[in-house]
Design brief:
This protein is of the alpha/beta class. The chain has 14 helices and eleven strands. It folds into two domains: 191 residues, Periplasmic binding protein-like II (D-Maltodextrin-Binding Protein, domain 2), CATH 3.40.190.10; 93 residues, D-Maltodextrin-Binding Protein, domain 2. The strands form two sheets. The protein has a six-stranded mixed beta sheet with strand order 2-1-3-10-4-11, sandwiched between helices. Strands 7-6-8-5-9 form a five-stranded mixed beta sheet, sandwiched between helices. It is globular and about 60 Å long. This is NitT/TauT family transport system substrate-binding protein. It comes from Pectinatus cerevisiiphilus. Pfam families: NMT1.
């Protein structure tokens, strides 16, 4: 009887040992998988179809983000309000939009920081007007269409008006989105519109319209940036580095593989390659050198700080925000050397 129990005891010990080994085997792949996920953190970023954000599509398509440690998914969000809501609710972790909108988002209570300058408008935004009007002063009392809820074009127009000592009260303002403003002008419903491409080109093709002034006149004022929540960056610094490095790599790819880059962009924005090529002429992208110059150094701050401070003051003066925003609190150049 004792012999039988001894045999059972031995068998039990063997089974226990086998189970322990099996358990260790099951734990190892799980840990390994977790480590792989850590190397490629899932990040969702929001952006509109504006051509200035196009290199991000290339970085996603060619796997540049993943190479640097982040699994980035670009989500199409055309509305500034929708992207702000998504960022506030953590449905997205980053957003590409114009600098003045980033200021408004920060004033709305989103603790964000801009870590990368993407592009500056170089003719992609402008004022189209009937041919009999040749200056902004000529438009006084006329019906003009623009988006008065904020954004790049509104900021730029207010910037121009300040230089001339004028205000919106000098015009018959029709509030609508920048795209709708361009369409309204082409349809002959307004005397002028503050809009962007492709509406500038469409206005030029009418027999009554022309571009009164475009953003080439004020380089560095209409600037698009990429921002993330500070709390997210603190927990996932590698994701921030990966996005910056992926952006740089995408810009290089556009130089060395232009046809493929154009094809990728065209597919993502739903346009013909030739149209994309034309639109790319209206923006200037910030590469690493451009970013370093625009951000400046801790001792000598670049124009980024000046323009951001200008936007913060302008929005506060106009009553569009009720909180003062310090440019230093929403700009972080520590990721610019990401590789």
């Amino acid at each position: 009887m004792n012999f039988i129990w001894q045999k059972l005891l031995v068998v039990g010990m063997v089974l226990a040992a086998l189970l322990a080994v099996a358990g260790c085997g099951n734990t190892s792949p799980s840990s390994s998988g977790s480590g792989e996920e850590g190397k490629n953190e899932k990040v969702i970023i929001g952006q509109s179809s504006w051509i200035g954000f196009a290199p991000l599509y290339i970085a996603e398509e060619k796997g540049f983000f993943k190479e640097h440690g982040a699994d980035v998914e670009i989500q199409s969000i055309e509305s500034k309000t929708d992207s702000k809501t998504a960022l506030a609710a953590d449905r997205i972790q980053g957003v590409s939009t114009d600098m003045s909108t980033q200021v408004m988002n920060a004033a709305a209570g989103i603790d964000l920081v801009q870590i990368l300058a993407l592009d500056t408008s170089a003719g992609g935004d402008g004022i189209v007007a009937k041919k009999e009007y040749n200056t902004i002063e000529d438009l006084k009392g006329k019906k003009i269409a623009l988006d008065t809820t904020g954004g790049a074009d509104y900021f730029w127009f207010q910037y121009l008006l300040q230089q001339k000592g004028m205000t919106l009260k000098d015009f018959d303002v029709q509030n609508m989105s920048a795209g709708d403003a361009g369409a309204a002008f082409v349809a002959g419903k307004v005397d002028a519109a503050i809009t962007w491409q492709p509406w500038l080109s469409k206005a030029e093709k009418t027999d009554f319209g022309h571009t009164l002034i475009d953003s080439n006149a004020n380089p560095g004022v209409i600037v698009d940036t990429f921002a993330m929540k500070k709390s997210y960056i603190k927990e996932h610094p590698q994701a921030a580095k990966a996005i910056v490095a992926g952006w740089y790599e995408a810009l290089e790819y556009m130089k060395t593989n232009n046809d493929d880059a154009i094809a990728i962009i065209a597919k993502r924005v739903g346009e013909k390659p030739e149209s994309v090529k034309d639109e790319l002429n209206d923006v200037k992208f910030y590469d690493k050198v451009g970013n370093e110059k625009y951000f400046g150094t801790s001792d000598t701050k670049g124009d980024f700080y000046k323009v951001t401070a200008l936007a913060a003051k302008l929005w506060k003066d106009l009553g569009l925000i009720d909180k003062e925003i310090d440019a230093n609190s929403i700009i972080d150049g520590s990721f610019l050397n990401a590789q």
